[in-house]
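Researcher: Quick test of sequence recovery. Tokens follow.
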């Protein structure tokens, strides 16, 4: 793992969105090996966005990065989506796909895979269109700030989704806990948090850059989620394939929680 924790500014300076997606978001690698990490996460997102009550008008994606896979099942349940990320090049890369610009990443195989999970592989173009239509804004955010979108104030949403962000953004457990409280303010009481987090990972790498990861245990994540005013409704843990030189990730935790009615 890097000697000093790589925080947001390191992402701004060194995170290459195209290389990140090439490394982690193709369905099969150069040798034709399936990307089980991605496929597990897509199945898990499909399952979580099929749970009772996980629906509504508005969804906020926290730490969206340059990717859209985390919104593919979500866009069937919510009408308007706002995507947030710290890094300018990631927001720009996402916009590039949303606008269908030349050079945008090809998500089609991933979209087709999700459509197949949802029952009809042939609906991929429709889903792409739907997602492009529903993402209304892509804004800067910093999860370590009390109002992550400062100076913008977003109305609280019906749901927030966050995949593989907080463990990379938070250098210690105290920061992780406070980041969860910060993003909790973005969701209405009774609304949901849908999260994918890696467990016991200390680094991940691509394109000869190494990024830090806060080493988390499942109970630490659950306690931080509860401490941010949520009730955990669903968890699922999937093991990471061993022997991956790019990361020391041991497992992936998928979690759905419901925000309690505010009493204090
Ligand atoms: N959600 C995407 C991207 C994860 S990569 C996926 O599932 O693949 C981690 C992301 O966290 C990067 O896009 C990075 O810019 C963002 N990030 C890092 N520090 C952050 C911070 N303090 N606030 C908000 N986002 C941050």
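Model:
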């Amino acid at each position: 793992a890097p000697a000093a924790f790589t925080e947001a500014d390191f992402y701004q300076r060194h995170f290459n969105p195209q290389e990140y997606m090439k490394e982690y978001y193709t369905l099969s690698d150069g040798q034709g090996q399936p990307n089980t990490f991605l496929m597990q996460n897509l199945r898990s997102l499909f399952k979580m966005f099929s749970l009772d009550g996980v629906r509504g008008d508005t969804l906020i994606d926290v730490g969206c990065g340059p990717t859209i896979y985390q919104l593919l099942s979500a866009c069937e349940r919510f009408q308007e989506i706002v995507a947030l990320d710290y890094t300018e090049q990631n927001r720009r890369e996402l916009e590039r796909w949303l606008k269908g610009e030349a050079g945008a990443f090809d998500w089609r195989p991933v979209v087709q895979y999700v459509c197949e999970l949802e029952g009809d592989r042939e609906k991929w173009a429709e889903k792409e269109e739907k997602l492009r239509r529903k993402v209304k804004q892509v804004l800067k955010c910093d999860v370590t700030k009390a109002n992550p979108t400062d100076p913008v104030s977003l109305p609280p949403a019906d749901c927030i989704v966050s995949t593989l962000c907080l463990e990379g953004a938070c250098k210690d457990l105290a920061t992780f806990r406070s980041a969860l409280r910060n993003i909790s303010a973005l969701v209405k009481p009774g609304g949901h948090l849908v999260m994918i987090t890696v467990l016991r990972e200390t680094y991940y790498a691509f394109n000869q850059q190494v990024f830090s990861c806060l080493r988390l245990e499942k109970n630490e994540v659950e306690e931080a989620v509860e401490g941010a005013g949520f009730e955990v409704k669903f968890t699922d843990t999937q093991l990471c394939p061993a022997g991956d030189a790019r990361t020391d990730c041991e497992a992936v935790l998928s979690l759905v929680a419901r925000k309690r009615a505010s009493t204090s």
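Residues 17 and 181 are 27 Å apart (CA to CA).
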